[in-house]
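Prompt: I keep going back and forth on a fold encoding question. Comparing notes only helps if you start from a blank page. Show me how you would write down a chain together with its backbone fold. Please set it down just below, with no commentary around it:
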Amino acid sequence: MTPVELSRTVLHAVRRAVEEGELSVAVPERVRVAPPGPGGCGDYATNVALQLARPAGQPALRVAEVLRARLMGAGGISEVVVTGPGFINFRVGGTAPGELVREILRRGERYGHGASLAGRDGGVVRLCAARDVRAVVHGDVLARLLRSQGASVRVSCVGPLEEGWRGVLEVRFDLPDSDDGQPGTDHPGNSHIDVRPVPAPADPLPLGRDAARWALLWPAPHDRPRIGEEHLVQRESNPLFRVRYAHARCRGLLRNAADLGFGPEPGAVEPRGAQKPQETQKTQETQVLLRALADHPRVLAAAAAHHAPDRLARHLVAVADAVLPLFPAVLPMGEEKPSAAHRARLALAVAAGTVLAGGLSLLGIDAPDHL
């Protein structure tokens, strides 16, 4: 179960509690779930009970127990625990990994795309970037992120784009540079966003498209980016290198497995039952990767809603770092024959590579199969 699916399940439980008269509140439009904080447990948690307690006129713990009763046994949820003043914690079911991998492979690079920001009444999000290299790259990527969540977007710049921004960074605005976005601005559903991140201290164009884009997008918009050759080095110290290297390794494993006569099949990655210490460590590493993959839709939605492409960049680094420990166990060793576990690990690696490729594409960065 992904965070988006879990959010919908919790929202359904709230709606049922209202319909059955146990809660007298307005049903929220959405429910936020996230990894549990200090004192929490399981895979995810939500504070929806605390948010509903005051309007419901009941203690948060009581609201949490009302919802817990409706969430126990829901498909994909194996455990529901109330902690602290009323946080609801979830442990997803054992079938979730295979289902998650199947969902990623089914949706491909569009995994995580949704309709949470789909405009109502024909509204359009109009982005207007300052005439600055970082602003136009942010505008370009924000448009991609917003569209990935169903928004209708138009982009403009306060002045003409420089040739290098088009030719090197491949910024593609869908309005003429001279268009100030005025037509249709009186539509009640429209929104207007000025894109003005802290400017770069130096010209990023000598870094080339991919490294320049990463250098401009990696820091938060209110932070000053660093423009230097550290974004070009082929070492683990370079986050962009780790992300692209992890993607290339995922693609390479798929090619190597095909040479050995087997392909990806989602399923149980680790053996069940008693495990040796090293196997327990591998299981924990796999869970870290699965949580990162399951969190991808939430990260995309948050990056779009908060106009923060750096959130996606940092998430891709987390996915890359989580998939690296999986690689040595994907292919059979020596005379070992491919097993169901090998096929499942390959499917998980391919899913991780798919998420990395999709995320890099939204950032306007190439995801090479060979590196």
In short: The CA atoms of residues 233 and 241 lie 7 Å apart.
